[in-house]
Design brief:
Elements lengths: L2 H5 L4 E5 L16 H14 L3 E3 L38 H8 L4 H5 L5 H21 L7 H12 L1 H16 L16 H14 L1 H31 L3 E7 L7 H5 L4 E9 L9 H5 L2 E8 L1 H6 L3 H10 L5 E5 L7 E4 L6 H4 L4 H8 L5 E3 L6 H22 L3 E4 L9 H7 L4 E3 L21 E3 L9 H14 L3 H17 L15 H12 L5 E5 H5 L24 H6 L1 H16 L4
Parallel strand pairs: 1-2, 1-12, 2-3, 3-6, 6-9, 10-11, 11-12
Antiparallel strand pairs: 4-5, 4-7, 7-8
Helix pairs in contact: 2-9, 3-5, 6-7, 7-8, 7-9, 8-9, 13-16, 18-19, 20-23
Length: 579
């Protein structure tokens, strides 16, 4: 597409807000579907056209949205668990249960997942018991809708509920490889469940029905959010990770689609200087590789189901690590064994792995023929996803070690790649001007894995002021000055580099919105000039996936500071043609 064509094409802006980070006056310690609707209202008011969220699939015990235990089931903590949203939850039961927790403490600070999950589970069980035992519900429209949901979703729901029943029997552990030998495969689990239905039918049926009921509520609430957002002129943008947790209902119940001998990840990365393993070997994510040959024989039904369910809620979605569809850096050992291999030589590694070494599968991009084959196969898999997506639009996260054929391949598939200004450079090191980006892209300064811009700016400014290593000082000074030139903000191009300010934030936003990209996305932290970081890759920390906005969504309207900022953002969107 030519520049003139892109100038006349629609360009929209949106905000990335993790659901857990949204704060409202009535939440239960974590963002929920009602908070998402409030955020939609605010975004519509300031002229934003899409709300981007992280994956909403049910999470494993590490609370990472990118480590889901189901490709379809929705995370229960995203639900508004209140009588106004769940008809079966009686006011008196709700009030009795929440009196048992310090709600003010739960609503302040970061997400306390242990307490939030316990509270919401108690409320959901209370609602379910009422649903199951209230004679008025028998034969009602509500019961009919539930039974129709179970029938319609039986292709994944039945095995998911079975998986959740045995998770309960194992103390909540999703690691099916450590479960009792009586039910540690799907065939044995199905047989054992039949025994339970004979010996303790009421308990077994109740547990199965409960997990189906929670998903019934979840899918209905998110369908309501989608309808509400559409009415406000705001698109919902979802996220689908390339991989899926090894410890998931899908891998447990449909193992034929997964290669458990290999774990997907990323190649060695020298930027992670504090992580010796990543520098030497790469990132071992632990996700199982796919058996693409078997999936192709089946018409990619698993992927099509996954995408079709996603698109019931989201009319735009991002594919995280789309490069994995072309080739995936893989490890012949699980992440738990990383330390065992850290200091070994190649011969010692081969001796332990039967001759296998970490590397790209099915093949590296080291020859023209290999590149051709990787591109051809990647496009076949992504075409199946595009087919399942229907009218939903796709953004492909193509950051990292990008093969030369990928941008053109994505463009040919009608998928928008991503552009991060600091990684789009000219031969002399200067950042490319934003209006040079191709139209079919999403421009953003940071993702959920990155520091907010204010944090980045201040960290580099402190290096300039305090470091005794001249190379570090020069690199930090050069980065901030290039960023200031990119934002066309001369006041920050001299010495000393000024502290991050509202004026710098505004200049950065203006230039991003002026990009020729179809989409411009801003993390909520960058939009508001905040410093909290949502995730630090490669670390296990209570701070990951738990930080929440310091203000409620209502405060964004009521507080004069945030209201003024909202008006300013609206002006920037109009000025740059994205309103």
């Amino acid at each position: 597409m030519s520049n003139s064509e892109s100038e006349n094409s629609p360009r929209v802006a949106g905000v990335l807000v993790p659901v857990f980070a949204i704060r409202t006056e009535s939440d239960l310690g974590i963002g929920d579907t009602s908070g998402v609707k409030e955020m939609v209202d605010w975004l519509a008011k300031i002229g934003m056209k899409f709300l981007q969220v992280l994956p909403i699939n049910e999470m494993a015990g590490d609370n990472s949205p990118y480590n889901a235990i189901s490709s379809v089931a929705i995370e229960p903590t995203t639900l508004d668990v209140s009588p106004k949203k769940i008809p079966e939850l009686r006011e008196e039961d709700y009030n009795r249960i929440i009196k048992e927790v310090d709600l003010a403490a739960l609503r302040s600070g970061a997400v306390d997942y242990k307490k939030v999950r316990r509270l919401k589970s108690d409320l959901l069980w209370s609602a379910f018991h009422q649903f199951q035992n209230d004679p008025a519900i028998r034969g009602s429209k509500r019961e009919t809708e539930f039974l129709e949901f179970c029938q319609k979703e039986s292709g994944w729901l039945q095995d998911y509920c079975t998986f959740r029943v045995f998770m309960d029997m194992e103390g909540g552990s999703e690691n099916w490889e450590t479960w009792s030998e009586r039910y540690n495969t799907i065939d044995k689990a199905r047989a054992h469940l039949q025994k339970l239905l004979s010996t303790a039918p009421d308990q077994a049926r109740m547990q199965q029905a409960y997990y189906a009921y929670v998903q019934f509520l979840a899918h209905n609430q998110w369908a309501d959010v989608a309808s509400y957002a559409a009415g406000k002129g705001v698109h919902l943008m979802g996220d689908v990770p390339f991989g899926l947790s090894r410890c998931s209902a899908d891998v447990f119940s449909e193992p034929q689609w997964f290669d458990l001998d290999w774990c997907g990840g990323a190649p060695p990365e020298t930027n992670f200087k504090d992580d010796e393993f990543v520098v030497r070997w790469g990132q071992n994510w632990g996700i199982p590789n796919y058996r693409w040959d078997r999936m192709a024989e089946d018409g990619f039904k698993w992927w099509k189901r996954r995408i079709a369910k996603l698109c019931e809620t989201f009319d735009i979605f991002r594919i995280d690590h789309v490069l994995g569809f072309y080739r995936i850096y893989s490890f012949p050992w699980r992440p738990e064994r990383n330390s065992e291999f850290l200091h070994l030589g190649e011969d010692e590694v081969r001796a332990k792995t039967g001759g296998r070494m970490p590397g790209f599968l099915p093949r590296p991009d080291d020859t023209d023929e290999n590149q051709r084959m990787n591109q051809e196969e990647g496009e076949k898999y992504l075409s199946a996803i595009a087919e399942a997506a229907g009218d939903s639009e796709i953004v492909a996260e193509d950051l990292g070690m990008v093969p030369p054929y990928v941008p053109g391949s994505l463009n040919g598939l009608g998928m928008s790649g991503m552009r991060v200004p600091m990684w789009e450079t000219q031969p002399d090191g200067e950042f490319n001007v934003a209006n040079s980006y191709t139209y079919l892209t999403l421009a953003t300064y940071a993702t959920h894995d990155h520091e907010p811009m204010k944090t980045q700016w201040e960290r580099h400014r402190q290096i300039i002021q305090n470091s005794h290593h001249q190379d570090e000082v020069n690199a930090a000074w050069y980065l901030l000055h290039r960023l200031a030139r990119f934002a066309k903000y001369p006041e920050a191009q001299g010495d000393p580099v000024p502290p991050y300010s509202d004026a710098i934030r505004e200049a950065l936003l203006r230039e991003l919105f002026a990009a020729s990209s179809k989409y411009a996305a801003v993390m909520i932290t960058d939009l508001l000039g905040l410093e909290d970081r949502f995730n630090v890759p490669g670390t296990l920390s209570e701070g990951n996936w738990s930080r929440r906005l310091e203000m409620t969504v209502s405060d964004l309207d009521r507080d004069p500071r945030w209201a003024k900022l909202g008006d300013q953002i609206h002006g920037l969107l109009k000025e740059t043609g994205r309103a």
